[in-house]
Amino acid sequence: MTKGSEGVSVASPSDYFELGAPTIQPVDTVGAGDTFCGYLAAALDLGDPLQAAVNGAVTAASMACLKAGAQSSIPARREVLEVGRIGMFGPRPPSAG
To answer: Is 34 annotated as catalytic?
Structure first.
């Protein structure tokens, strides 16, 4: 379950975890949920483990909020992976929820 700026809660038959969202100054949140869902589905289809896929989806949705527009703000997978690699958003605490 996505919780906007509070992050995400994830439950599967074998796992439960929460991940906080990075602190950002959003420009436009239109498309953030679609970006999260699309990135999560694509990452899982590519074989990413659940926690890595969710982490990438939260990163992608956060990045989408940094630009105006819906479709034009969706980051490419390589951009999301680079942000994750360099730690642009820093460590994230578990969700407050």
So the answer is: yes
